[in-house]
Write a structure and sequence with these properties.
The structure is a single chain. The protein is an alpha/beta fold. The protein has nine helices and five strands. Helix 3 links the parallel strand 1 and strand 2. The termini are far apart. The model has no long low-confidence stretch (mean pLDDT 94).
């Protein structure tokens, strides 16, 4: 079947529910988007950005990729960050990982997975940097969970190292970068207490004055 009729039906039901609660919602939404948040998360189908924080369309700008990584050569991700920061003037960038991430798990083993292995090299590097800390843990789950958290912290730093974010700070634009992680098992977000708000909070070697 070339047309997924059930999805179109669900779409109509969803749109009707929103219009019942706010008849002008889509009219207002079509005129502009003015989100305060950029969400960079994992492509995992179990981690939908809007639903997790109970936000409607138009309230959060979203970029997702496998294992929620921010790489300095990824023009897709960098373009999203630039648009969000310079055009939409978001006030917060949330880098949200999740426990049980398949990308993190694949990066921890020594198996070949295909093209994705090149993408996961970034996470393997994080594993290598923190190998002693990870190996000191008792169980595989503890090691897995820790690497999921360390990946979030590393990606927050990568966001802050971009000229996009640093130029925003230098111009006085209010912008905070946060590191969160989500538990699929209970639906709860955890703040990893990583919140960067200016140049003084990143390493000297990465500051571009």
């Amino acid at each position: 079947m070339r047309v997924l009729k059930d999805l179109f039906e669900k779409n109509r039901n969803w749109a009707n529910k929103i219009k019942e609660s706010d008849p002008d919602f889509f009219t207002k939404l079509s005129q502009q988007q003015n989100p305060e948040y950029l969400w960079i998360g994992c492509s995992d189908s179990r981690v939908p950005a809007n639903e997790i924080v109970d936000m409607l369309p138009g309230e959060i700008f979203v970029h997702r990729n496998i294992a929620n990584v921010v790489i300095h050569t990824d023009l897709n991700c960098l373009s999203v960050i630039q648009y969000a920061v310079e055009i939409l003037k978001v006030k917060h960038i949330v880098l949200c990982g999740h426990y049980g991430c398949g990308g993190i798990k694949a990066a921890m083993d020594n198996q070949q997975h295909g093209l994705i292995d090149n993408w996961l090299r970034n996470i393997k590097d994080i594993h290598r940097y923190h190998k002693a800390q990870i190996d000191a843990l008792q169980t595989e789950k503890e090691k897995f969970d820790l690497l999921c958290e360390l990946n979030v912290i590393e990606q927050v730093a990568n966001i802050c190292h971009t000229t996009i974010v640093q130029n925003a700070w230098k111009s006085g634009q209010p912008l905070s970068v946060h590191g969160w992680i989500y538990s699929i098992e209970d639906g709860i977000l955890k703040d990893l207490n990583v919140c960067i708000t200016g140049l003084a909070e990143i390493s000297q070697i990465h500051r571009m004055e």
